[in-house]
Amino acid sequence: MTQQALFIIFGGTGDLAYRKLYPSLFRLYEKGYLKDNFAVIGTARRPWTNDHYHEVVMNAIADDGHEADRTNSELVRKFASHFYYQSHNVNDTEHYVALRKLADKLDEKYELKGNRIYYLAMAPRFFGTIAAHLKSEKLITDHGFNRLIIEKPFGRDLKTAKELNDAISAAFSEDQIYRIDHYLGKEAIQSIAALRFGNQVIASLWNKEHIDNIQITLAESLGVEERAGYYETAGALRDMVQNHILQIISLLTMERPRAYTAGELRDRKVEALQNIKIYSEEEARQNFVRGQYGEDADQEQQAYRNEEGTDAQSQIETFVAGKLVTTNESLAGVPIYVRTGKRLAQKSTQINVVFKNVDQNIFKSVADADAKLLQNVLTLYIEPDQGYRFDLNVKNGNQSYGTMPIHLEYHKSAAEKAKVPEAYEKLIHDALDGNRTNFAHWHEVAQAWRIVDVIRQTWDSEEAEFPNYVSGTMGPQAANELLARDHRTWVYNPNR
Ligand code: NAD
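Above: the input record for the complex with nicotinamide-adenine-dinucleotide. Below: its predicted structure, written as tokens.
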């Protein structure tokens, strides 16, 4: 369905706008979700002209993988002509008056019916002042929809997240706020619900009677790259666990929604997060380990502490592994092991659901000595691979009655993957449609901070012995011990 709206992108000259927002808006335009009735105002401090802004937008589309000559195509030019640049300092009230005048003019020119989407692609410390000015300077229309899209990080802990939420809530109601967690825009993450609730086989096994443990790995092979400034204030726990990993856990552990609607899903996810056990400091110490990368084995890649922009004594973790448990009745006590880090052996995001072994191995008496029944594992590949794998035991093909493991696998082909809308494209499309299913509700964000804050406080009170893992491995030994003490191992182990 074609939508009419004015986008006002704060931080229009930034990296996110260039790499994600402009190409996503273009794809929505190509597909007809946006047609003649839309306009974009990009604002930031730089004194750009509209013409320069059009060049930037066209370059962003070209850099996104579209063929170079697309920058000259009629479609791209027509698309870029909907973009307007307004130099703007977010702290200056005067600028909002100019912004309103331009917004009202474009509203009339493109017949946008007062529909506005404010995209805050800027550091969160500006969110409060922008939201307050949007209200006081009357950019928020009284006809049409007004939606605020905001980026992570949403605070540094519960206290700062609450302050941030109070600030934006003074101008926008919860149902107007769209908090981006771009993992929720990923096809394979959205597919968790289809897999769990669309298959009787899986739905009936998804409980503590049958699941032994769940493992979630978000592994990056790159180091901190150019993001040291941000990373030094964040670390892996805040950057990955508080948002993406806990969102994934909520989707894996929630009870079945009555329908796949934003409201139902939000309620089930909030419940799921409320059921995750909040640790005491002692429990946090026992159940979570942190790491920071050192050099690689060949000493070609440098240690985190030697990267440009990091502190030579940095206590920031580039790796986290931990064990969480839910009190949710159907999965109570099932350990959920999580792991994320930079400079790991391979880039891969995957979920491994490990099922319990059969009660009795009836083949023991007849089997070959090496015949062992392995646990069934259901693997969801999130990225870069997208697909599924199911490990089963079958007969070994020999004269004797031994068994052997096989894998049923499905992987999306490159052509199929290319057709899947990119996360930002999906999320912007949903925001245009007023569909909040794949955005994080305040209650989810707040509960995630409650879970993570204790771990952070525990770590902040003790000095870490960093670096403690070699670049190109799967993190510190302590991450393996975390499972070994439960007589388990990580299913995904590219070093093995
Ligand atoms: P960036 O530093 O590239 O861009 C920041 C933008 O804010 C620039 O356009 C800059 O001109 C503008 N700005 C700064 N101070 C200003 C002021 N006083 N008045 C007006 N404009 C001002 O940052 P980014 O990488 O684009 O990230 C933007 C937000 O998105 C951040 O919250 C970041 O955490 C989040 N985010 C970014 C990415 C990414 O891939 N870049 C991914 C996830 C989340």
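Notes for the reader.
DSSP finds 16 helices and 16 strands in the chain.
The domain at 5-151 is CATH 3.40.50.720 (Rossmann fold).
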